Amino acid sequence: MARHEVRLAGFGGQGIILSGYILGKAAALYDGKDAVFSQSYGPEARGGACAAEVVIDDDAVDYPVLTRPDILVLMSQEAAIKYSADMADDAVVLIDDDLVTAGAGRMVYGAPTTRIAEEMGRRLVANIAMLGFLTGATSVVGRAAMEEAIRTTVPPKTIDLNLRAFGAGFDHGQRAVS
User: Fold this and answer.
1) Using CA atoms, how far apart are residues 96 and 141, in angstroms rounded to an integer?
2) Measured between alpha carbons, how far is residue 104 from residues 70, 87, 96, 101 in Å?
3) In CA terms, which of 13, 140, 166, 177 is 20 to 30 Å from 109?
């Protein structure tokens, strides 16, 4: 695996920052990779565009800042507008296709991650469904590593729900790229 620069973006309250943390944790603690995580968000507590950025590499990360993200995860239209400009020409773009309209000319895969979460009775796990979609559609981090990172991060009473949301997203990711 080469260096991967992953940007996850959405609006405040969707769990975007937590998603970046879990992705970095999965890579660094459970998948034997090096990872660096950073976050950015506006002054709004909820509702404004925010992003989590994770650099993942088999070797030591020598430059911890995204230069040209090769994987972009979008969970809101505002975030798509704000955070898409600097992505690599061959970037893989993963969207919640109920909330984001795909731009032309990119490798774009969509899954209804918010709807998946709503059907499970907890919209709050849409971010975890999206992590499943990311894991199923790319080779950035292994499934077992991501599941362990989820298991050791979310509140104990929500582990099963989060793992179900992850699994549903993962299945969508596998189908999207097959």
Assistant:
1) 20
2) 16, 14, 16, 10
3) 13
List of E strands, the chain: 4-11, 34-41, 49-57, 71-74, 92-96, 107-111
Residue with tokens 């000319």: 105
Give me 62's structure tokens. Answer: 């020598």
4 closest CA partner among 163, 137, 176: 137
48-96 pLDDT, tens digit per residue, is 889 999 999 999 999 899 999 999 999 999 999 999 889 998 999 999 9
Please state, in angstroms and as integers, the Cα–Cα distance from residue 49 to each residue in 46, 81, 95, following that order.
9, 10, 15
pLDDT in tens, 139-172: 999 999 999 999 999 999 999 999 999 999 999 9
Q: CA angle, corner 9, sides to 173 and 27, nearest 5?
A: 60
Residues 6+ apart with CB under 8 A from 172: 111, 112, 113, 116, 129, 132, 133, 136
Q: Decide: pTM greater than 0.85.
A: yes
Helix (H, G, I), strand (E, B) or coil at 65: coil
Helices vs strands, H then E, count in the chain: 6, 6
* Domains annotated on the chain, with CATH: 4-177 (3.40.920.10)
Inter-residue contact 111 to 176 (CB < 8 Å) = yes
